[in-house]
Structure formats: C-alpha cells, structure tokens
Amino acid sequence: MELWTEIKIAVNAHDIEKVSDIANVVVPYGIYIEDYAKLEQEVEQIAHIDLIDEDLLNKDRNKAFVHIYLEPDVSPSEAVAFLSERYTAENIEHSIELLDCAEEDWRNNWKQYFHPIPVGKKLLIRPSWRNDYDADGRQVLNIDPGLAFGTGSHETTRLCLEMCEKYLKKGDSVLDVGCGSGILGIATLLLGAEKAVGVDIDETAVRTAKENAEINSVSDKFTAICGSFTEKVEGKYDIVLANIVADAIMFLSEGIKDFMKDGAVYIMSGIIDTRAEEVKKSVSKHFDIIEEHLENGWACFAAKALQR
Question: How far apart are the first and last CA of the chain?
Fold first, then answer.
C-alpha cells in the first residue's frame, strides 16, 4: 500500500489562522488543524457538556498544529520549502516535521514525481533531469526547482503562465514578485519578453532562479534579486507577476502600482477560491480586474491600474 506523507507544522496558537491559510496553498484538502486554545468554550458550544477528557485538558494551549496530508505522487520537499519560506516571510515561528517518510527519502527521491507538462499553447515545462519528452513545437522551459517552490505542476503556476501567454507582448519587461524557482520570469523570456526581474526574500530561491536562467540560456536577460521588492527593485515594467498567497497579494498590491508602466498588466495567482472575493475587493481599490480564471479551487486575476 502506498503511503501518504504527513507534514506536521507546529506554531504559536495566535498564528494558526494565517498558518492554515498559507498551508491551503500547498493543498486545498487533507488539512487538519489541532488547536486547543479555546477548548472549553468550543466543547460547551458544540456538545453542551463540561466534561472533557483529561488528556485534552493537559494539551499545551499556547501551541497549535496544522497537519497536511500529501498523496504519494506529490513531492514533500517542494511543499516544505514553500511553507518554510512563507512562514519566515510572515515572521511566524514554526517547526515542520515529516511523518511516514524518512528525510533521506524525500530529499533524494522527490524528482520522480515531476514529468514534462504542456502549459497553455506555447510552453512545455521539462524537469531538467527528464529526457523522455516530445516538445511538439513548443518552447521548452527547463526547470530544476531544487528546494525553491515552483515546478509548473501546481495550478497556481500554470494559471499564471497561461495569463502571461495571453497578455505578454514581444519586447515587454517583466517583474516577478516572490519568484521562487524563477519559472515565471524565465517563461516570459522564452515567450518573447526583453527582460525579466525576479525578486524573493529567500536566498535559496534566488540562487535556484539564477541557475535555472543559466539552464535556459537567458542569464543575460534575467536578474534575480534577494530582498523586499519595494526596497531592492528599480524601474517600471509592462507585466508584474505575483504568484504568492492571498494575504501577501492584498498587502503588496498598492505598492506594486509604482512599478508598473502605463497600461501594464498585473497578474495575481496563488489565491485559494474561498478567498477570491476578498482579494478582488481589496485589489479593486487600486486596480481594475480585467480577467479572472478559476480552476480546481484556485483563482488567478489579471488587472490594470485604475486611472485617477
């Protein structure tokens, strides 16, 4: 019988809502939240009893846990790298434990889960270690995600790439906020962009993005920057990409306007469908949503800055 992988994330109880929102980006199902901060009140409200098992009463009320369950064909390493990066960015203290799968297994064997996949009408994403593919006339994007989030297999990345294919014009400049493995920026260069800048707060992601640019022979057009985009990035761009989490998109959107040329398109992904309307309402303070795409529980928006 094939084993699923359990990722157990331990955090401070007051962070549990934000932690679970970020966890939902990894997988929109199979998540279990263990939080005993309001045990007595919740038991009383739900069961209308005041007799609670002693083991439960002895639980640490200051700690909470999110349990994520991944199918056998999903790579734990990519999920763990993404979660750790985002929690660190939010200054959330956390520890991550893998169960039912030894560390050496997921570090060494995760590559078997990724296959060449066509995206949109023009791209084929090829894991750099796979040679069994037929490009069939598509541009081949060679990707080695390492421990940085982004192989192209997740809906959020694919939806973003499909929007890029639609709105990108030859010669455009592109900014990718939270670039991860660099997959989005590199893809835009293969689709005809003149230059792309990827920025991420994680040093591993920036290093991986640079390596992937070299693999795809676009290093001369791709710049990877480590740090906050508002502090490190200069200039204005034709396309701005943000494949991150809902809270980050809402927080960053106002500042992103300053990096957009007149008529530029802002493409947002990584938004779980249950928060899509909330994100739209927030983003619409600064942008006009020109297209939205919902698929398999995820939302992707394209927008232009409001003219005032």
Answer: 60
